[in-house]
Amino acid sequence: MIADRVRAIWCRELQRDDISADDDFFALGGQSVIMVRIQGAFIEELGAEVPMDQLFLNPTVASISAYIESLSAVTE
């Protein structure tokens, strides 16, 4: 499931293990440097190129996972 993989990336990059699907990236302490690392992880681990504006528009695990699934570019 994409959401589980996205959550794992967020947990690793934000150095937290208590992130839920509806937690806001910025409320969790997320900032631009972490966002760039997450963007790179999405490319490397999910095969999904997510533009920076989409990361701002979809600041939860649930919303960015739905966006990534809509790309149909995820490699399992």
What can you see in these coordinates?
This protein has 76 residues and is mainly α. The protein has a single domain, classed as Orthogonal Bundle (Non-ribosomal Peptide Synthetase Peptidyl Carrier Protein, Chain A), CATH 1.10.1200. It has helices spanning 2-14, 32-46, 52-57, 61-71. The chain starts with a helix and ends in a 5-residue tail after the last helix. The model has no long low-confidence stretch (mean pLDDT 93).
> How many domain modules?
1
Tell me, what's the shape?
A: globular
* Main sheet makeup: none
Number of helices: 4
CATH topology: the name is Non-ribosomal Peptide Synthetase Peptidyl Carrier Protein, Chain A
CATH superfamily: ACP-like
- Portion in helices: 55-70%
Tally of DSSP β-strands: 0
Q: Which radius of gyration do the C-alpha atoms yield?
A: 11 Å
Oligomer: single chain
Would you kindly provide a brief summary of this structure?
This protein has a single domain, classed as ACP-like (Non-ribosomal Peptide Synthetase Peptidyl Carrier Protein, Chain A), CATH 1.10.1200.10. It has four helices and no strands.
